Amino acid sequence: MTDAFAERVFTDVSTTMLTMLACLGDRLDLFKALAASGPATPDQLAEQAGINARYAREWLSAMAAGGYVSYDPASGSFSLPSAHVPVLAEENGRWFCGGPLQELLAMMGLMHQYTNVFRHGGGVPQSAFSQDMWTGLERESAVWFDNVLVAEWIGKAPGVRPQLERGTSVADVGCGRGRALIRLAQAFPNSRFTGYDVFGPAVEQASECARAEGVADRVHFEQIDASEGLQRQHNLILSFDVVHDAADPLAFLCSIRKAQAPKGRYLCLEPRAGERLEENLSLTGAMWYAASTMYCMTTSLANGGAGLGAMGMPEVRLRELCLAAGFAEVTDLEVDDPLVALYEIRAVE
Hints:
- By secondary structure, this protein is α/β, with parallel strands linked by helices.
- It has two domains: about 1-85, Orthogonal Bundle (Arc Repressor Mutant, subunit A); about 105-345, 3-Layer(aba) Sandwich (Rossmann fold).
- It has 15 helices and nine strands.
- The strands form two sheets. Strands 5-4-3-6-7-9-8 form a seven-stranded mixed sheet, sandwiched between helices.
- Strand 3, helix 11 and strand 4 form a beta-alpha-beta unit.
- The termini are far apart.
C-alpha cells in the first residue's frame, strides 16, 4: 500500500513539473508553432518560436516523455498529434486549455500569501493576483462564450432566444472582462446589455474590449458591488460562475431578484457539485477544491465573505438561497458539460 501511494505521489509531482513546462509552452506559443509547422527538430522549433535551441530540446524531450508531443527517432523531429492540437493550440476553441494553464502561473506566484492565510486565516484579495489570472480566466471562459453560449445555452431556456432577437434589456452580474455580453451583442444587435463587476480593472478592460469589437453602442459596463443592489431592472439577467464567489451569496441573489423585471428571466451558471463530499471524490472534484482554495474561497474570505468555495453551491444549496431571495423556481437546464450546471431561476409570475 505504501509503495503504491508513493508511486502515486511521484506521479503527481512528475505531472506537476510537466504542467509547469506546458504553461511555458503556452506562454511562448510553442504548441502553436508546432501545430503550424508540423514535425520540427529542436533547432527548427527554436528558430520558428524565437527561443534558445538548448531549451527547445529539453522542453521537447519533457513533452515527449509526458505524451504531449510525438517523437520520431529516425528524423529527430517532434510533432503535435492532431488530436492534441485543439487542446493546446486552437485559441478559443471548444477544447482549448491554455486559459487554465495561464491561471496556474498566477496561482504559483502567490505561495507566500497562501501560506500566510493558512496559518492566520483571512484570504488573498483579487488585487494580489497578476494579469495572468485575469487573462487566463478570460481565455478559459472563451471556451464557453465563443462556442456554446449562443449556439447551445441560450436555446436551453424556452423563449429566451426570440426575446433577444426582438430586443430586450440584459445584465451580466460579475461580468469580468465582458466577453459573454460582447458575444451576445454581436449575435443579438437589437438588445441592450449592461455588465456589472466589483473589480475595477476588469470593468475597464471590458469597456475597451467592447469598443474594439464594435459593440460599445449597445454594451455598457459598470463597477458595482452587486450585493449592495443594482441600479435598474433587466428582463434577462445572467451570472456565470459567480454566485459561489460572492462575499454574501444571499445578498447577491436578493439584488438580482430586485433587479429582475416583471416576468424576467435569470440564467445562472455554477460548478457542478454534489451536496456531500463523498459525491465529489474524483479528479474533477479535486480540481474544483484546489481552484477554490487558491482563488474562489480565498478571495471571498478576503472580503469578509462566506467563503463557500467552488464546490459550495450544489443545486440544493442554490435552491435554498434562491427561495430565501424571493425566487420560486430553479430548473437545471441540463447542459452537456461535466464541469458546470446551467440553471434557469424564476420568481412567481
